[in-house]
């Protein structure tokens, strides 16, 4: 089975057709879509969508791009919501959380400090609940690694990974998997393709990040989780292995990264 480990299925770009999109993905062979929250305002939406689509699950977190307008009480609400969701089999992780040092406004000293404070508190929530984390690491791999080493959540995924081989190894050593998606399908993405080719296959998970990061064959159009099998086939071609090998390995990697998926998929 194919598992899309990161898809913003609740995004407005889907025009209210999210359930149809999930059904199309299921027909294409995508057995599970993980929908991460990005702010307190969509905690309920991702939960409701995950319960409405048979092949969906969700994570709760505050994305670094939403940190500027977030308040400290949002962290309290996140902890309360995550604790309450522990009885929900469709709740599988804390995310999307992390750091973003690509957007200039987020690189200002005060905002860097706030991002790191929010990340640390969300890592603590994950650690306290025994949950993995879905991390945003754009231009911030080393800084995210530093906080993960100090707080030690129960593993997770470095989403849209585009770091060095040493950074990849550091994440793997901390029990993380590395997310690859549409960016890997572009021939000019030399570093990402080298990583996808040379990293251990059991350290890789597949993702779409839909509606963003569309693969080369639909770029610059809207991405969709139904593209995941084709992204997986591209990974198989890059590595020179059968498609079934990639499907099986990335499935097992996703289940190792988010163990709560095992019960959900078995039900």
Q: Radius of gyration, Cα only, in angstroms?
A: 17 Å
CATH topology: TIM Barrel
Per the principal axes of the C-alpha atoms, what is the gross shape?
Answer: globular
Question: What string, H for helix and E for strand, traces the elements in order?
Answer: EHEHEHEHEHEHEHEHHH
Spatially, the strands of the biggest sheet line up as 1-2-3-4-5-6-7-8
Strand element count: 8
> In whole angstroms, how far apart are the ends?
15 Å
CATH superfamily grouping: Metal-dependent hydrolases
| Count of individual helical segments | 10
Q: Which regions contain 5 or more consecutive residues with pLDDT less than 50?
A: none
Q: Could you name the CATH class? A: Alpha Beta
Oligomer: single chain
Question: Helix- and strand-based class?
Answer: alpha/beta
Query: What portion of residues belong to β-strands?
Result: 5-15%
CATH architecture verdict? Alpha-Beta Barrel
DSSP helix fraction: 40-55%
**How many strands, which pairing sense, and closed or not: the largest β-sheet?**
8 strands, parallel
Mean pLDDT: 97
**Total domains:** 1
